[in-house]
Amino acid sequence: MEEKKIRRIAVLTSGGDAPGMNAVVRAVVRTACANGIEVLGINHGYSGLLNNDFRKLTARSVDGLLQRGGTMLYTARCQEMMTEEGQQRAANNCRYLGIDGLICCGGDGTYRGALALARRGVPCIGIPGTIDNDIGCTEYTIGFDTASNTAIQCIDKLRDTMQSHERISVVEVMGRHAGHLALNVGCAVGAAAILVPEHEANFENDVIERVRQGRINQRNHHIIIVAEGYSMSTQEVADQVQEQTGMDTRVTILGHVQRGGAPTVRDRVIATQMGNYAVLALMEGKEKRIVAMQDGKIVDIDIEEALEMKKPLDEALYEAEQSISI
Questions:
Q1: Residue 73 and residue 146: Cα distance in Å, rounded?
Q2: What's the distance, Cα to Cα, between the start and end of the chain in Å?
Q3: Percent of the chain beyond pLDDT 90?
Q4: Distance of alpha carbon 24 from alpha carbon 39, whole angstroms
Q5: What is the rounded distance in angstroms from the CA atom of residue 112 to the CA atom of residue 110?
Q6: Catalytic-role residue among 100, 132, 134, 267
Q7: Nearest-angstrom CA–CA distance, 12 and 24
Q8: pTM score, two decimals?
Q9: Residue 147 · residue 259 · CB < 8 Å
Q10: Partner residues linked to 182 by β-bridges
């Protein structure tokens, strides 16, 4: 594809923040500057685009970003961007600022905003940034590895005190309506049971009996991982476990701590690759694409096609964990 002359681009982060978003911004800015392209950073996601809240970014201004969690551009959810009027206003602002391409890092909602702008003549490239790892078109989303490691570190510390009291820990991890994070974390901490939205557990066999067998085998502490989107609340799970086993059962909700912290090596590297790829895609004249990882390689696919894809749970890993955690 013939390279398109790009003079000015913009970058924004939208939706829930994820470790590695700053690394994306850094890669976008450094790649653009290396190719003589001016970069505007849009503050507060689409809300900032609607309100012309932006700043000029240079290669020097993104020094030290690689290791920082969160997002220097801030992020927000923008209801106005879901309306025809808001979308048109955002597109008009892009034209007013002379933006030849917009790079948007986030999840499904971010991509829907990018699609609306692309349909109004603004070339857009999406980058998957979410700890949930629930974007159907890509094997990996930026932030997932860091969030997994954060949760594991918290649970390892929790295990120390729970073992001292011979308690059961029921731990809720994030993930919205998907169980990828819960499965990954549960496998890594050796959970007695993992409850995810994709599988409705037989509570007696999949949870209670596993705890009982653990006690019979002289195990004095048990970890149960619950995805936030599971059909029962974490407290309901804990109440049932305590009622049926008689063991002291405590709930821990890890919450937004999973979104913070310095990104891991994997998130820094993949964010850098995807940010670089997105700028080059705009320079090649691509206008409505999402950067993705498929078969371990960075590729791009059509936004509309990507939004139709669903991401199944890793059933092989789920079945392996079910057979191991006995």
A1: 19
A2: 54
A3: 87
A4: 13
A5: 5
A6: 132
A7: 10
A8: 0.94
A9: yes
A10: none
